[in-house]
């Protein structure tokens, strides 16, 4: 039996009151793609509703602490918070990072203990242009190519999307490598002996920010095609 778990690490750009002084004059940065992933929370909620899955989501800005990075990773803290006192950074981790990670681990652990296979979709979005380079993709499916279950689900997901929307530009392990540092990578190690499938879904923010029918249709297509991909397993 499959258990779906949906997460959204970069769902908003909120800064909790105790740390707002660190972000004075940084409104534009917080509102940019560096502050959060536009559309990722909307997508995550749609997936959780469609699959009757638990949703773990954060609306705290990734500029405070990046929930999709490991402790010790150079990008765990942003340029804004990296220079904060060590005690402040430790407090941020204790208040926001560790509770989020523990909640996701608890859900995965409970499903594994019941003997279920876990399909974890981590919802993200990416900017269509970064450092002057255009990213010519609509949807990215990120996974570890050495893990058969993840590779098969993503292959079927991409195939199903191609059948229903051949004009949609879908790539695997783009714009990032799915085996890089992140929550899914952590969970692969944490539950190495289980049937854990961790996939990062990346949607082009150009579609999200344009809103309208295309964004609504894309959400529906991603859900329907994932359902088809998982039913074929």
Structural features, described:
It is a single chain. The protein has 233 residues and is of the alpha/beta class. The chain has one domain: Zn-dependent exopeptidases (Aminopeptidase, 3-Layer(aba) Sandwich). Helices cover 41% and strands 17% of the residues. It is built from 7 helices and 8 strands. It has helices spanning 27-31, 40-50, 86-113, 148-164, 183-190, 205-210, 212-231, and strands at 2-8, 55-57, 117-126, 129-130, 133-134, 139-142, 170-172, 196-204. Strands 2-1-3-8-6-7 form a 6-stranded mixed β-sheet, sandwiched between helices. Strand 6 (139-142), helix 4 and strand 7 form a beta-alpha-beta unit. Helix 4 packs across helix 7. It holds the Pfam family FGase.
Summarize the structure.
It holds the Pfam family FGase. The protein has 233 residues and is an alpha/beta fold. It is 41% helix and 17% strand.
Name of the CATH first level: Alpha Beta
Mass-distribution shape: globular
How many separate structural domains? 1
Mean pLDDT: 96
Unreliable segments (pLDDT under 50, ≥5 consecutive)?
none
CATH level 3 topology: Aminopeptidase
Protein name: N-formylglutamate amidohydrolase
Organism: Mycobacterium seoulense
InterPro entries: N-FG_amidohydro
List the helices and strands and how they pair.
Blueprint (H helix, E strand, L loop, with lengths): L1 E7 L18 H5 L8 H11 L4 E3 L28 H28 L3 E10 L2 E2 L2 E2 L4 E4 L5 H17 L5 E3 L10 H8 L5 E9 H6 L1 H20 L2
Parallel strand pairs: 1-2, 1-3, 3-8, 6-7
Antiparallel strand pairs: 4-5, 6-8
Helix pairs in contact: 4-7
List keywords for this structure.
single chain; Aminopeptidase; 6-stranded mixed β-sheet; 41% helix; globular; N-FG_amidohydro; N-formylglutamate amidohydrolase
């Amino acid at each position: 039996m499959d258990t779906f778990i949906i997460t959204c690490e970069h769902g908003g750009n909120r800064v909790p009151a105790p740390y707002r002084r660190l972000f004075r004059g940084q409104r534009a940065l917080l509102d940019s793609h560096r502050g959060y992933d536009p559309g990722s929370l909307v997508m995550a909620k749609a997936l959780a509703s469609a699959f009757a899955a638990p949703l773990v989501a954060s609306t705290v800005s990734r500029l405070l602490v990046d929930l999709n990075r490991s402790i010790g990773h150079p990008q765990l803290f942003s340029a804004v918070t990296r220079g904060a006192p060590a005690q402040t950074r430790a407090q941020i981790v204790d208040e926001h990072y560790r509770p989020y990670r523990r909640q996701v681990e608890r859900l995965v652990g409970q499903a594994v203990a019941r003997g279920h296979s876990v399909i974890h979709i981590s919802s993200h979005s990416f900017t269509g242009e970064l450092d002057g380079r255009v990213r010519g993709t609509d949807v990215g499916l990120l996974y570890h190519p050495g893990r058969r279950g993840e590779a098969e689900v993503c292959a079927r997901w991409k195939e199903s999307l191609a059948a229903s929307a051949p004009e949609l530009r879908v790539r695997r392990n783009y714009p990032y490598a799915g085996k890089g540092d992140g929550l899914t990578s952590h969970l692969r190690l944490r539950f190495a002996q289980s049937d854990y499938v961790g996939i990062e879904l990346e949607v082009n923010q150009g579609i999200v920010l344009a809103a309208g029918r295309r964004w609504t249709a894309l959400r529906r297509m991603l859900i329907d095609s994932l359902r088809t991909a998982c039913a074929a397993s």
